[in-house]
Amino acid sequence: MAHRVDNEYDYLFKIVLIGDSGVGKSNILSRFTRNEFCLESKSTIGVEFATRTLQVEGKTIKAQIWDTAGQERYRAITSAYYRGAVGALLVYDITKKLSFENINRWLSELRNHADSNIVIMMVGNKSDLNHLRSVQEEEGQALAEKEGLSFLETSALEALNVEKAFQTILSDIHQIISKKALAAQEAAGSGPPTQGTTINVADSSGNMKKGCCST
Amino acid sequence: MKPALGPKEWRSLFTPEGKFYDGGVKLLKRVRNGGVEPSIRAEVWPFLLGVYSLNSSEAEREAIKAHNRKGYLLLRKHCLRKNNKESVDDHITSEEENPCVILEQEMQDKTGKAIPENQADESLCSSSSRDEDESEKSDVTDVEASRDDVASVDQSSVEDEEESMPLPKYSNTGGNIETETKLSKIARPVKSARTVEDFETWQRIIRLDAVRANNEWVSYSPSQAAVTREKAIESASAVCLKDYEHLEAHRIHHASRLVAILEAYATYDPEIGYCQGMSDLLAPLLAVLEEDDEAFWCFAGFMRKARHNFRLDEVGIRRQLNMVSKIIKTKDFHLYRHLEMLEAADCFFVYRMVVVMFRRELTFEQTLSLWEAMWAHQAARRAGITRSSWRKLQLGAPPTDDLLLYAIAASVLEKRKLIIESYSSMDEIIRDCNSMAGQLDIWKLLDDAHDLVVTVQDRIE
């Protein structure tokens, strides 16, 4: 049905934003896609998403980011949307110890419902509230290392490290895919490079820009 | 759109004893077609939401009101005890600093005769799987002891058995249990090891949602908008609300009311507890109903139907999405086939509209009009107003419990051309549905929904 159009983007990557209620997932998303922040943003019901196209390592990447509800109750619907995700930002609030302690639960949630190759980045948000901090940066770093995840502290309010977090995860994903494509190419001997299995997202999610064909 | 029901006409509907002349049929008809004027909403809504029966007299309503008030206070008291317990557990607040301990005592003073709590505890424990009372006994501290003293004083002061009243509990009478049991069999068994949420979790999320509630209700309730900071802080400490320093007085007050009522509801209906989205349903009620106890019982009436959306097993929400899908399939097979092709025939893209009943898509005023129409339908069903008597009033569409779902289907059908011609993935439909805010004409939507009820209801329900 839909095919990838090279002049629009090279890859479409689906990323999910997960973590406890109130850690700032929706504001990370709005900061990244619209450069907006809203103190009174409402709770996310089910899932919402936004996209942004950006350059990563010389490639045009369209990031399709799915923002999910944090409450346990919504887990069944939100986990259905892990399918096809190539990356996950797992967010906690540096002022809320509990949200950090729950990281392990979220990791097992991903292991149970997401693609086993999913690239995960751990994000400690609200770094602007340093005076209320209850999770030290070193603790976050240590857990991330133990679990083999990349890690950053961000502040969606001050627009600190949000861009960098997405750049990091997108380039990690891109590198993995490039390697896979290369491996596939070598395995197939000569011939045109094929896309690795991980990016079937790019094939199935369509390419039509909103508005380009409507009306 | 017909004019809204106004105060003069509203008063003319009652006999001198305060009963409706016609059992409320005209009321429901008027509300269904034109809504209610803001000045009388607080009087009308308790009828729409089943707090008062449509056959009740004024005297009966007074009695119910007094009884309900007492029941609400009991629920609040129960919540305060839990708050105290948590403070003890957290070792954060010492006895003398804990505002809730003091408040609990004040509350007893104010209500005069306190209500025995041991009975309330028993009724809670019987339906609750939690073993908190066990743990409570194991960590008796000074605060615990002082609280026990208070409780024993209560008991001795209320020897009179007639004064006692069990803690109000949600109980299901009627509803669509059968359909839901059937449905649960086809729902996918993904429950796995999901943990059950506890009251403490609910309290935390309730507060989180309360302090981020916006203030679009302000122009509907000037008196609440003008609340003093002193009063606001008082109401915040009454529910142990913190983290509100950044808010204006009226928003602190509003947040405190949200906490009070949502906590009371979680106690009243522990099977549902609190689920994000419920604060969206309560906030408009608070703007209209200035007394917490009245707001609580109206909310409980609203939740009788809405609670199914928030069930842990997701059976209620699946039934509803299924029904939206069926309405679309019956009305517009071509569109349905297209949705199937996009793997969107399950209608998950209207999830949010179903859960918070268009609250995120409509303005405050539009939401109230839609909900009033929906409540009028549900009240007509409760009162057993039949299709034929409704028809005699030249109302084409018979009463339905699911007007909301017809309205949601109508909003999707309205976009059929765009969906069929331009959308090639479910993502695009989700984005479209999530950005409908401000684009909907509520009265046209209601007309379309009523038309749908007329044309497809027989094949759906």
UniProtKB/TrEMBL annotation, chain A:
Name assigned to this protein: Ras-related protein Rab11C
An MF annotation (GO) of this entry: GTP binding
Pfam families for the chain: Ras
Region spans: Disordered: 187-215
CDD domains: Rab11_like
Topology relative to the membrane: Lipid-anchor
Subcellular location: Endomembrane system
Automatic annotation (TrEMBL), chain B:
UniProt GO MF annotations: GTPase activator activity
PROSITE patterns hit by this protein: TBC_RABGAP
Start and end residues of each stretch annotated as Disordered: 114-176
Domain named Rab-GAP TBC: residues: 35-378
Pfam families given in the database record: RabGAP-TBC (PF00566)
Annotated Basic and acidic residues bias: 137-150
Protein name: Rab-GAP TBC domain-containing protein
